[in-house]
């Protein structure tokens, strides 16, 4: 028995070893290149510092870009609520098997396709700009938030609902007075968490042409304006930290 | 309750259980884990369905309180108590506490006063201690207006002082208010101190029925460790 255990362990280690050697080769990992390239990185950093703080050409467009990014994240989150709620309710346990499987598969598909891919598709449909970003976020977010919501609904304690059923309450009364009070705070908390994530995603979407401050970062890199890029990245840092603190504070109050 | 039978798969949990709880009486069901006590209560309120047998509640529906209390912790105490009276409300007045009618609120307040917690009406249910929450759950059951109160291990999660308080409340509800109270307990001492009658279940059958004062240690051993007692 122990011999077999050792044998299994040896096989697992060997397979993992081979996989890593293969991965090392495929990704062309080369510590030497990293060491040789330190000069390039140093130059990059030297050019990025100090950040360019010119109001008209950099700071003002940057702030407008941040607002656009925030707006994409906001609409991408709120406009996905109806569909996410629908799929979440259909995807809770105890439903008809076909409805359950169907909604779970739709949500899995939407989750599996990255928002960047959706963005590229929508850019070809509606052109470059923030609207493509909003559409991309909606699609991806319905999959993720729907899944999170249906899990939250599955997890609530059935006890309070049972207690009301025992007293003779009808199903709608049970839902309104036991199920919803238990589940709504969790749903709102997850919604805020997704808003937080979506604002960050909308930055990446900007890189592929969906507007906002991400687009400005991409542009400044392509024009070798690294000092402008530094300003934008600092702004992004402030934006992300602000959104994160806000959603964390609201979630704490809900909890 | 007559000839109650219940099986889960091939495991028989209740094998022909008959008992009766009269108004004004506190009956305690004792027995080891898996002896069928909780299942018997759950059959009475419809949370489990009996395979055979007959259950009669002479005054309509029975109310029930649970070990895990099952209050909506985020709502305040009075709204939780009101929820016990939902069955009598039209849908339009019952979908959110703001719509609960005044007479239900007054009735709930009286129930809350009965369990000694009227001063906590506006507090969040989750902010109360375990013993207080269980008394709120009793108030919710009272607000249902039932004359039969079932309690499934109502004090198992409580400290001794809180447990005594809840048991004394159940005794009062039986003796002073004339309710029929049946409680599943795990502590033979509490049964001895508070119950009028004790029913002991073993492997889904009634092994003993006795006045609480006459419950002996041998009886208790027979319920919890039947292997050690000569038949």
Secondary-structure map:
The complex is a heterodimer of chains A (255) and B (231).
Chain A: H1 2-26, H2 31-36, H3 38-48, H4 55-78, H5 81-90, H6 97-112, H7 115-126, H8 130-155, H9 159-166, H10 171-207, H11 213-222, H12 226-254
Chain B: E1 2-8, E2 11-17, E3 26-30, H1 37-45, E4 52-54, E5 62-66, H2 77-82, H3 102-114, H4 130-143, E6 148-152, H5 160-175, E7 180-184, H6 188-194, E8 197-202, E9 205-211, H7 217-224
Parallel strand pairs in B: 3-7, 3-8, 5-6, 6-7
Antiparallel strand pairs in B: 1-2, 1-4, 8-9
Question: For this structure, what is the CATH homologous superfamily of the largest domain in chain B?
Answer: P-loop containing nucleotide triphosphate hydrolases
Mean pLDDT of chain A: 87
Distance between the termini of chain A: 49 Å
**What is the class of the largest domain in chain B in the CATH system?**
Alpha Beta
Look at the helices and sheets of chain B and give the structural class. Answer: alpha/beta
The CATH architecture category of the largest domain in chain B equals: 3-Layer(aba) Sandwich
Q: Could you say which overall geometry of chain A the principal axes of the C-alpha atoms support?
A: globular
State the share of residues found in helices of chain A, binned by percent. Answer: over 70%
Biggest interface and which pair forms it? Answer: A-B, 20 and 29 residues
Distance between the termini of chain B: 27 Å
Taking all residues together, what is the mean pLDDT of chain B? Answer: 85
Q: If helices are DSSP runs of H or I spanning 4 or more residues, what is the number of helices of chain A?
A: 12
CATH topology of the largest domain in chain B: Rossmann fold
Given as residue ranges, the uncertain stretches of chain A (5+ residues, pLDDT < 50) are none
Examine the secondary-structure arrangement and name the CATH architecture of the largest domain in chain A. Answer: Orthogonal Bundle
Give the class of chain A from helix and strand content and strand pairing: mainly alpha
């Amino acid at each position: 028995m122990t011999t077999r255990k050792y044998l299994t362990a040896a096989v697992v280690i060997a397979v993992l070893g081979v996989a890593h050697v293969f991965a090392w080769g495929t990704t062309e990992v080369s510590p030497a290149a990293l060491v040789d390239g330190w000069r390039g990185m140093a130059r990059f950093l030297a050019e990025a510092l100090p950040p360019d703080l010119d109001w008209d050409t950099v700071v003002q467009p940057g702030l407008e870009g941040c607002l656009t990014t925030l707006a994409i994240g906001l609409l991408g989150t709120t406009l996905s609520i109806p569909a996410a709620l629908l799929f979440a309710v259909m995807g809770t346990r105890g439903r008809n098997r076909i409805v359950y499987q169907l909604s779970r598969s739709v949500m899995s598909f939407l989750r599996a396709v990255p928002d960047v891919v959706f963005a590229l598709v929508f850019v070809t449909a509606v052109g470059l700009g923030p609207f493509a970003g909003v559409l991309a976020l909606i699609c991806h977010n319905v999959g993720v938030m729907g899944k999170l919501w249906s899990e939250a609904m599955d997890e609530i304690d059935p006890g309070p609902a049972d207690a009301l059923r025992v007293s003779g309450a009808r199903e709608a009364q049970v839902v309104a007075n036991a199920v919803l009070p238990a589940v709504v705070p969790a749903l709102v908390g997850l919604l805020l968490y997704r808003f937080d994530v979506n604002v960050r995603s909308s930055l990446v979407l900007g890189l592929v042409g969906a507007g906002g401050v991400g687009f400005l970062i991409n542009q400044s890199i392509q024009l070798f304006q690294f000092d402008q890029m530094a300003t934008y990245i600092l702004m992004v840092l402030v934006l992300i930290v602000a959104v994160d603190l806000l959603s964390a504070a609201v979630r704490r109050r809900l909890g | 309750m007559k000839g109650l039978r219940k099986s889960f798969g091939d495991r028989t949990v209740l094998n022909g259980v008959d008992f009766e709880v009269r108004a004004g009486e506190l009956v305690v069901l004792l027995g080891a884990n898996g002896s069928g006590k909780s299942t018997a209560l759950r059959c009475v309120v419809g949370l489990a369905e009996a395979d055979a047998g007959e259950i009669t509640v002479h005054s309509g529906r029975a109310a029930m309180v649970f070990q895990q209390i099952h209050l909506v912790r985020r709502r305040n105490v009075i709204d939780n108590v009101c929820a016990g009276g939902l069955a009598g409300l039209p849908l339009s007045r019952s979908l959110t506490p703001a719509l609960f009618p005044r007479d239900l609120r007054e009735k709930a307040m009286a129930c809350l006063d009965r369990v000694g917690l009227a001063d906590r009406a506006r507090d969040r249910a989750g902010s109360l201690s375990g013993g207080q929450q269980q008394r709120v759950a009793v108030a919710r059951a009272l607000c249902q207006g039932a004359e039969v109160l079932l309690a499934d291990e109502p004090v198992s999660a409580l400290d001794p002082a809180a447990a005594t308080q809840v048991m004394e409340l159940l005794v009062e509800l039986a003796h002073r208010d004339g309710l029929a109270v049946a409680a599943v307990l795990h502590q033979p001492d509490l049964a001895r101190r508070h119950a009028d009658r004790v029913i002991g279940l073993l492997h889904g059958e009634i092994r003993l029925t006795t006045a609480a004062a006459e419950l002996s240690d041998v009886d208790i051993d027979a319920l919890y460790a039947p292997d050690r007692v000569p038949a």
